[in-house]
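Student: I would love a firmer grasp of how sequence relates to backbone shape in proteins. Thank you; the sequence and its tokens follow:
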Amino acid sequence: MVMEDNSNLIPPHGGYRNLKSYQMAEIVYDGTVKFCDRFVDKRSRTTDQMVQAARSGRQNIAEGSMASGTSKKTELKLVGVARASLEELLIDYQDFLRQRNLALWNKDDPRVLKIRKIGSQEDRSYLTYKTYLEEQSSEIAANTLLCIINQTNYLLDQLLRKLEQDFKENGGFTERLYNYRKNNRDNFNN
């Protein structure tokens, strides 16, 4: 008798667009493109670095999610790369503020608390932050993006802990494949 249920061999995967971390990373990417267009020399290596770090944050979440069906190890690695890329971008924004003698807002600053509150809304998108990023000063835009990056990093840290725990408890594709084949053999022999 052959097992007919293949759903456990390659579990549902993808769905990254529903992840809050992906949604926030997309806002970071779009905001960084706009920020660099407005405030950083387009011919500067910094522009390329910042945009690529933001893009890497978003893309690696998507790629990890798609790979998760057959490789939890790859998913963990790529989400870690996304987190590292956004940390690099965070430092770029801090450097921008420091090098121009602009204020880096404290985490308890009322403006930070207001932006963090926006980030906790369910229906947030780039448009939610558009006025901060497209109509305000470089100081406000950079600090807004720092807030969004910090929120995204927090979500990615939670996701990494969840993925790690899931891997510890359930293993990965190799274990599922072994169990599938073993059960298939056992059912055939009975």
Residues 138-170 form the longest helix (33 residues).
